[in-house]
Acireductone dioxygenase (Dyella mobilis), 187 residues
Amino acid sequence: MSRLRIFNAEQPQTPPSIHQEHADIARELAKVGVRFEQWEANQPLAPGASQEEVIAAYRSDIDRLMREEGYQAVDVISLKPDHPDRAALRQKFLSEHTHSEDEVRFFVAGAGQFTLHIGDAVYDVLCEQGDLIGVPDGTRHWFDMSEAPYFVAIRLFTNKDGWVANFTGSDIAQHFPRMQPLAFTAA
Ligand SMILES: CSCCC(=O)/C(O)=C/O
Ligand SMILES: [Fe+2]
Ligand code: NI
């Protein structure tokens, strides 16, 4: 189940407000300019599927987004808990950063946790299969996949060069909850 927790940026220990209904999550995120939608993710793809398989399965959605919203590049992150580089891949996204383009991600399997630092608040969004999130350019954020990653996400870029991050140097991400491994993947 998708989940939004909203913290005060200065008070990571204080219990956050929590939303678990998709409409509530979308409404709260829309207030701060973040896109959150539920899409059909009905192709039988498991984490670990290749980029080619994922792109072929979602070709029509990808083509439509590229045509209608002007994306120039697409790639896929597809990870399962035994990936040999999982620790390094997790580390890559764990510190606060921004991008000079919107971060648009469609989760076609599994789950991952985006945390957005907007003004005085921190929005921690657990995205699950079927969720599309669009984080505006310049938004400070980080992403966790847990120590046992289990997800397939399609990434769309307006920049032809794909993923480029600007790290803020802040340690704020260390103070907020990390993603817990999905129960069904913890063997
Ligand atoms: C779920 S896609 C991988 C994370 C990513 O691309 C990013 O920029 C996280 O902030
Ligand atoms: Fe990012
Ligand atoms: Ni600190």
